[in-house]
Amino acid sequence: MDNEQAKFVLGASRPSGRDDERPEVAEALSRAATDADLCDWLARERASDAAIARKMRELEPPAELRSRLLIGTRTSRRKRPLWKRWSIPMGLAAALFLAVGVAWWLLPPPGHMVDQSAPTLAAWQRSCVGIFSNPLFSLDYLDDDYRPLEDYLVRHGARVAGRLPFADGITSALGCSVLEWRGARVSLACFHSRTGELVHLFTMPAHYIEQAPPLQPVYRAQVDAFATITWQQDDLVVMVASRMPQETLDAIVEDRSERITAWVAPHAGSIPRA
Hints:
With 274 residues, the chain is of the alpha+beta class. The chain folds into three domains: 3-57, no CATH class; 59-106, no CATH class; 121-252, Protein Transport Mog1p, Chain A. It is built from eight helices and seven strands, in the order H-H-H-H-H-H-E-H-E-E-E-E-E-E-H. The chain has a seven-stranded antiparallel β-sheet with strand order 1-2-3-4-7-6-5, sandwiched between helices.
């Protein structure tokens, strides 16, 4: 595990320490204890989390808020100066704005992938691997066994690829998230590999993508810093991505040449929506 992987694992863990006993988190913490740069990064992250939590605890609603809500339409009709009539609503609005802003920084990111380009395969691929560049991104659920991850993804409305498409080289699972792209739920499962690099498995209903890649069993592409292998599996589009070299990723993903003959360009009218 290198520093980037350790940051990914620690960023996905809960600041409360409830995940510290998990093997991958314990390994990352152990590395932080002996690496000055990683230790400084972790200290800044934890300090930031603690500061935000303190600010949230310090926020108090105005004392008159509850009574005003209960009174509702029965409030006095007596005329008041305009500035007084606006002072409390403006104060409440400011407090609400601050609370929402702080809460947005405190809560885990929603995993919504913003993409204004055409819904092509390339756009989906860029959005998927781009989620790792978001400093607020964290995994929804951690486990070194894939089965609990699969259960979590299905319970939260995401499709999964079924049997894992790995021939060799995967040592354990890490965690998962449910992402969103153009109204579609995208399942993400992350794995440890023998090379030390993380391997990411993305799955989504194929009809959300309008443009098909070249007709071949699988579609290989370098997407930013990630080597990728993508294919259509029934009504799903599946992509494996990693920062490892393409030839190394090819050796990890099972040969699909006999299982898939071509990418069939999906259409919303021909494939039932989930």
